[in-house]
């Protein structure tokens, strides 16, 4: 440690001119008002928060209403339009000095969980703690290929000064992963949520089988919005049917946060930041950066 700290040297770091681009982020879910966050692209040397509070943000529901969103705070805008399954939504964001940004996505139809289970496994980890066997049975749509995100979560609520805060813990670090998830090619990076598609599922009904470590990790808390609405304290399997843009975004994010842009694998997480250049983040914002993506979810109490 002393040898590393004694070898610090300051160097000049020049950054090219940052283009004027809007950064737009919105994750749409069914039966909830559409919310959009708008900021501006900044230099890596600029640590301020460039929220844009004077943008014109318009959401158009295909075959339905058009709404100009109301400004809340910290770059957040809220619509009177609530997302509906199967509908296409188009976004336009205008702000002085920036090119107009556009995006479009569709809220997928929900795929229901028929059954889910969690039980102690016959196997144990290196400390003698039993693994958990988890299954999720769902009925896929016969019409087209769907994209999914699967996770197992404990959600708890706490009221502080009349405000409800939510805390989440995810069952993570799989011991064995279902073949359909493995076939998706996304498991090199995911450890708390799992992305897959049903292109290789022939039957109408399919059961995902996972073996997980016998503990819950990757938690977080202090959020004002729940993952599972109308529930305070719950332990559940959650199956999200997601748009292709959501699927690509989540896949790129998991690679990005682990500094991965290839298939190189590393066993010890301490070495992850040392094995390659960061993965660029997925964006579906035309003339800008960010995401405008959608999901629909079902859950089954464990």
How does this model look, in words?
This protein is 8% helix and 46% strand. It is mostly beta strands and 302 residues long. 29% of the residues are buried. The model has no long low-confidence stretch (mean pLDDT 87). It contains 3 helices and 18 strands. The protein folds into 2 domains: 22-106, Immunoglobulin-like; 113-282 and 296-301, no CATH class. Strands 1, 2, 5, 6, 11, 12, 14, 16, 17 and 18 form a 10-stranded mixed beta sheet that branches. A hairpin with a 4-residue loop joins strand 5 (70-71) and strand 6 (76-82). The longest helix has 14 residues, at 244-257. It is globular, with a radius of gyration of 21 Å.
Q: What is the gyration radius calculated from CA atoms?
A: 21 Å
Based on CA inertia axes, which overall geometry fits? globular
The span between the termini is: 46 Å
Unreliable stretches, pLDDT < 50, 5 or more residues?
A: none
Instruction: Report the mean per-residue pLDDT as an integer.
Output: 87
List the domain count as a whole number: 2
Question: β content, as a range?
Answer: over 45%
Described by strand count, sense and barrel closure, the largest sheet is:
10 strands, mixed
